[in-house]
Amino acid sequence: MTIRHRITLLVILTFVALSIIGGYAVYQTRASAHKVRQVTEGVVPSALASADLVSQVKAVQIATMTLVYAPDDTVVEQALDNLKKLHGEIDQSLARQAQGAASDAQKGLVTQARESVENYFNAINDTAKLKQAGKTEMAQAFLFAMVAQYRDELEGVVNTLRVEKNRQKDSAIATLNDTLSTTTTAIALVTGLAIVLLTAIGALLYRQITRPLSRMQAMMSEIASSQDFTRRVPVGRMDEIGHSIVAFNGMIEKIQERSAQLKQKTADIQAMLQNMQQGILTVVDGSKVHGEYSAYLEAIFETQDIAGRPVMELVFGESDLGSDALSQVEAAVDACIGQDAINFAFNEHLLVGEIGKRMPDGRVKQLDLTWSAITDESDTILRLMLCVRDVTELRELAAEANEQKQRLEMIGEILAVSQEKFHHFIESSTGFIRENERIIRKHSQADSAAIAELFRNMHTIKGNARTYNLQYLTNVVHETEQRYHDLRQPDVARLWDQDGLMRELERVREAVDTYAQINEMSLGRKGPGRAADEQSMVVDRAHIRASLRMLEAADPNDPLQLVAMRDAVHQTLRLLGTEGVGEALGGVLDSLPSLAAELGKPAPAVRIDDNGYRLRSPAVRILRDVFMHLLRNSMDHGLESADERRAKGKPPAGTIDIEVGLDHNMLQVTLTDDGRGLALQRIRNIAVQRGWITAETYVTDEQIAQFIFRPGFSTAAQVTEVSGRGVGMDAVQDFVRREHGRIELRFTDERKGAEFRQFQTVVCLPDNLVVDGFDLNSVAADAVDLPAIDAGERSASRDGLSQADKV
Q1: DSSP character at residue 340
Q2: What is the pLDDT of residue 182?
Q3: What is d(CA 697, CA 625) in angstroms, rounded to the nearest whole number?
Q4: In 3D, which of 713, 643, 648 has the Cα closest to residue 683?
Q5: DSSP, res 40
Q6: Per CATH, is 417-522 categorized as 3.40.50.1000?
């Protein structure tokens, strides 16, 4: 028999007893039938129903505990059905109490009880939702918090109602006793028997319900407080209480299993932390290091004092981080612990990934740091986990490998350049560096002319380095050039820092010296190179032998022949040590295909007509620097892309012509290309924008062309590695003027006022920098009637005297 059946039996027996008493009283006296009916059918049942209401509340409590401690969803559903039924029964009981309310106090208590019932079952429903969501621990907490509060409130109201009903019952019975004095004895006997029977049933119910519930509650509380999950609550009978105990014991068994698994996993984690070759720690509230960490962490930080120390002191103390970075790390750690996981995503970029930490003996370790957040079920960050790796050796090996790789790349770059060209490049770059050093030391404050010259010299070094594809040097020079470029800007305050400029210049010098040392020490290439020396010696020997033959063939008695021979020897000696234009510009011309590929254009055809003229060493140096700029400008600004040229009916690849001549005692080297021409309209617009002229000012095409020689002028749409920094023609003009020369632009068409006009760039230098190679044969032929040079020597001499070829 279940508890519910026992309670029902008690109610039935009580009702039967009262019915017998009432029937007997009616039989004894019809006069008091109405009052007896009120007592037996109204007041007394209502009072007893109030006691039944208390039992129903207890039943709800039991069903609620069954719900919370249910081992599976089936039991949960059964408990919910039971609670729903009990809710209806309580509502019915309260309705009966409301009907039998004999006073305003009883009506108020019934209303209050209904409100408490609703609050009680709402709390139970919330607990059921937590249980159904799998949050058993929170459901248990909610049971002992909110549900218990409303249960106590309801029990208090029901008990008060029961007391009030009992008081009403007692009053009615007293009144009835006064009026039924004649039936007192009989009713007392029947009532006594009923009381005995009800007492026996109550004692039985106490022994089977109340006492087991109290014992179960005590044992459950003891197990929960002691955390001794090996104990179990004994099961007396398999009624509702027995099923609840079985469910509780099953839950304890599951907890015991989970505890054992957790203990094993904890042991496994501890073993991993003690044996893994990586430093792992967790940062808890207060930015302290948790007591559990990997043993290898002690080897990394070389200390056993780790647990409980501030993470900023242990990890970042004596590190290479600045105060600002340290503040950011500390703020990020504080902003994450105890907060939502999204805070870690927002602040993760402030948690540095690598530091250099100085050890007590002065060694610096490179430590790699990896951060991650440890969160709970609600995505709240409980701890920050930090993995630390000592990557010092790895970084050293990587740096060494990178250094070796860079050295090999530099060797490859050097080997791609002939020994002679590389030697000339090193000499030229060294000269520009010395000139920049002189300028920096000379000026203690910013000077526009000095800055412009510094920039031009550095730009020339970079252009030459790019010509020979010396990539590492190009990058270093580009950084220094950028510093000079910033100093040239009118809207930037000029901070002339001699020491800083000298340090940057020293970086360029070291880069140039590195290339020179690799060339000499690793490759064994010293001086201008044997090939160039041998070629020069072959040409010089051919000239000397030709002069000796002419001297031997001359008649010593003929003064005219002697004078002619003297002039011929003089001319021969003048040719010694000279170079043709093609030889002088060989490095620049060799770089044009790679430059064209960089610009997305086909490589141009270059035609050189030197007319037999050869250049002395100063002219060679100057023309190399000058034509480095001129040819790059021609490729970038002059020659169109292949598609544009096809659209204009031109061949895809452009043509560049270089011609050498003498005019008015000046060496003239003329550069012409078949590109679009000089962009006069764009040059004029730039001049107007910069305030050099107004929009209404009339200027000729020649005057517009002169604007390109102004410092900082450029027509490039954007800054690239090739052009756009406003250096070029002003540098060319400066180079030429240093040698007492000039540079001119000459238009070759009659399209005055056109947007584009064809032109020639003419570089004029003193004629003492050039030698006419054809004068040797002409003088010899005038002096003596014989071949000036035999066939073999003429070939060797001719190769060194003139060029009229295509490159």
Answers
A1: B
A2: 67
A3: 35
A4: 713
A5: I
A6: no
pLDDT at 776: 45
Could you say which DSSP state residue 380 is in? B
- Please give the Cα distance from 300 to 316 (Å, whole number): 13
Do the two domains 3-184 and 417-522 of this chain adopt the same fold? Answer: yes
Whose tokens are 């252009």? That residue is 463
**276-398: CATH topology:** Beta-Lactamase (3.30.450)
- Annotated domain spans of the chain: 3-184, 238-275, 276-398, 417-522, 546-573, 577-713+726-772
Cα–Cα distance between 730 and 129 in angstroms, integer? Answer: 84
Instruction: Give pLDDT, residue 715.
Output: 59
- What letter does residue 183 receive in the DSSP assignment? G
User: 560 with 570: CB under 8 angstroms?
Assistant: no
Give Cβ neighbours of residue 29 (< 8 Å, ≥ 6 apart): 36, 180, 182, 183
**Residue tagged 């404050």 (tokens):** 445
Question: What is d(CA 174, CA 168) in angstroms, rounded to the nearest whole number?
Answer: 10
Using a 10 angstrom Cβ sphere, with 0-12 exposed, 13-18 middle and 19 or more buried, the burial of residue 419 is buried
Beta-sheet pairing, 770-772 with 666-673: unpaired
Res 173: pLDDT? 76
Amino acid at the residue 516? A
User: Residues, the chain, total?
Assistant: 807
Give phi and psi for 69, each to the nearest 5.
Answer: -100, 20
Kindly compute the dihedral angle of the four CA atoms of residues 360, 363, 368, 373, in this order, to the nearest 10 degrees: 0
Per the structure block, which two tokens stand in for 349? 């970029």
Distance of CA 799 to the CA centre of its chain: 61
pLDDT tens across 480-513, in order? 988 888 887 766 556 788 888 889 899 999 999 9
Name the residue among 323, 324, 303, 331 with its Cα closest to residue 388.
303
Q: Tokens at residue 548, please?
A: 């000796």
How far is residue 486's CA from residue 495's CA, in Å, rounded to a whole number? 10
In this structure, are residues 343 and 372 in contact, taking their beta carbons and an 8 Å threshold?
no
Collapse the DSSP code of 517 into the 3-class scheme (helix H, G, I; strand E, B; otherwise coil) and give the result: helix
For the domain covering 577-713+726-772, report its CATH number.
3.30.565.10
Q: What are phi and psi for residue 694, nearest 5 degrees?
A: -95, 165
Q: Which CATH architecture has domain 3-184?
A: Up-down Bundle (1.20)
- Please tell me whether residue 232 adopts helix, strand or coil conformation: coil
Pick from 137, 180, 247, 234: which is nearest to 22 by CA?
180
Positions of the chain with pLDDT under 50:
530-534, 719, 721-722, 724-727, 775-807
